[in-house]
Amino acid sequence: MTVKGRVLFDSERCKACGICIAFCPNEVLALDESHINGQGYTPAYAQKPEACIGCKICAMMCPDMAIIVERA
Hints:
Elements: E1 5-9, H1 19-23, E2 29-31, E3 44-46, H2 57-61, E4 67-71
Antiparallel strand pairs: 1-4, 2-3
């Protein structure tokens, strides 16, 4: 499978709302339980980056504008 996108997070802006996770069609994203940001939240991260299709739905849905998707 060819990677078509790369998800980048500003983990300090993420409030762990989970909206990006819920809308990702390929279940690429998850909350990083091993990290707590400066606001006290466990930010989202790309747990399966190889499955990203570059659709940018996660970035569009993020209320905190903490996500950028680069297309390959």
